[in-house]
UniProtKB/TrEMBL annotation:
UniProt keyword terms in alphabetical order: Membrane, Transmembrane, Transmembrane helix
UniProt lineage: Bacteria, Pseudomonadati, Bacteroidota, Cytophagia, Cytophagales
Protein name stated in the entry: DUF3667 domain-containing protein
Signal sequence annotation: none
Entry's transmembrane regions: 89-108, 232-253, 259-283, 295-312, 324-348
InterPro entries: DUF3667
Organism name: Hymenobacter jejuensis
Amino acid sequence: MAHLHTKLPVCANCYYAFPEGGPDDYCPRCGQQNHDINIGFGHVVEETLEGIFHFDGKVFRTAGLLLFHPGELTKRFLAGHRVPYVPPIRLYIFISFVFFFVLSLRFGHEEKKQEKALTAQQQRQRDQGLRQLDSLQKAGFVPPGVAARVPPRATAKPASKNEPGVGFTIGKTHLGPDEIKRLPAEPTNAQLDSVLRSKGEKSSFWGRLSVRRFIYWRDTTRAEKIHQGLRALSIALFLLLPLAALLLKGVYFRQHRNYVAHLIFTVHLHCFLFLLFLAVLLLGYAPFLEEYSAWLLWLIPVYFVVALHGFYQQSWGKTIGKSLLLGLTYTFTLLFAVVSALAMGFILF
């Protein structure tokens, strides 16, 4: 990444002397960029981001093609124009990281809003009860001093754990809330077998594992549940990439393209989806724009069709027909992947 900064005659790190008239952008001995240390704050931020994500001018060129020229980024990358653009996997990791980070913040924001609304509702009910109590006290039906025992403010109880009234089912047998409540946080195999046998279930590894995992989730806070759910979702979407590329290869098998070409197109498509959903999340923070943010989702089918047409170079009729087939198949595959990831997350995480 080139910058217009004062060059030093000697490397500030290893004291290598640059030959006069030779290349002096980077030190050939240690690799450090050669420029004066008196640089602006913006350059410090840029170098920091570059060190973490290789964040430089490539990002803006890549984002421009990705957002406004569907399919073109994949065409240029496969044509060998790779230096000016961010590599697909690195781009996917960066954008998905930002998306899931903002999504986790959004969940926390909504939870706080619900707690505030619940507190306000409880406060109104408390104030109404105090007014009724005061009227009864003035009428002589309630002894003096009762109202003073009421807490000064109502507070919402945070929904950090599962309520004790929740049961679950193993096979065809339902375990009630009282039975689950009696189990300790780390039950022994004998305790688990006793519960299973009392319900007519055979003692098995999967039966004990199911009860253990439910107890774990019973004692897990809401924030931890959200974190684990997002973790499972991110893994599912990443593992879905090769499956989606395989669908593309099957639909466009007559073009005899390499599988990697379909995979790169799939990665770029998912990067656009992450950016679009990220925009929807960010617009949700603006009250006057939140109701309109969902309209952005209509860009998904439009972008998908244009990207397919631009990359695979088929007629609009064939492209629209194949986009419907791919969209339907991808939706079922996505649902299966998400459900499977959540199920695996319940067992493993």
